[in-house]
Model the fold of this input.
Amino acid sequence: MLRAISLAEAFKYTAKPNPVVGALLVSETGIISEGSHERFGENHAEINAINNARKLLGKSFNSFEDLTLVCTLEPCSHFGKTGPCAEAIAQIGIKKVIIGALDPNPLVAGKGIDLLIKNDVKVEVGLCQELVKEQNKFFFFKHEKMKPYIAVKIASSLDGKSHNKDGSSTWITCPESRDDVQNVRALYDAILTGGNTVIDDNPRMNARVNFEVNQPKKILLSKKNNFDMESNFFKNAEVTIIKETNIAKVINSIYELDHCSVLVEAGPRLVNAFLKTGLVDELIEYKSSEPLGKNGINWFSKNTTIENLGFKLESTCKIKSDVKNIYKKC
Done:
């Protein structure tokens, strides 16, 4: 199972918003084949493991009935972008399946196991379950909490400022912190921002990384209609525009999409609107060693700290001259 978990991890940037899954077919003598869910919309891990094993039928093993399937997540039982894996497993003749964790998605949620058992497949569940859940924390969070995982990212000067009052452009953090942000973006299913940020900063808000990634979708929360659709934010991107002002309703709208996780990158007003709902799960702060001064705009009101907003510091690390702090909801 640890090997299957390791196989799955390699595709955490390309399988999303689906969970990452690894699978092995094993005989009494060892591993026959391996498979992973490599990209969203493509074959699931179990199918890839079966297809790889077919090439060795009659060479490394004589019958699928002699093999055990080890998979990190419950095989699916419904038709989506691919067919039901549980049905394919039963049809190929596999007689034993060991599963890491039940799929929390109501479309599956035990139905895959039921289908296997009805086809006389022996099933064991729960091996390394917590590791599988942690590996797919956004996916499990969405289906267990009935909301997407919401993280807010801010870049703050030493004195807690966001940007200059006069609107003049300035980098708050060092280049290395800005590179780290790209890796954070790559983990999320969607990035959300506001209209003022798009108009004033002309951001790209994609994950500019040196590895393959299923780029996060973009969500624009604004009632404005005067956007330049040729600006960076809209280029080569799938953008959902939401005009709703009630943040709780916005989050519910996102839940109804495929997104398990959303990274909010916006100015102080929209960031604080999200934080005040109590529905934000994580706050990522990149803090500079330099102050912005009296001409800067505060991230938070005078007497407000991140801790007062219901978060506790979980980790901190240095990035050159900056500090990266990760706060989790208490």
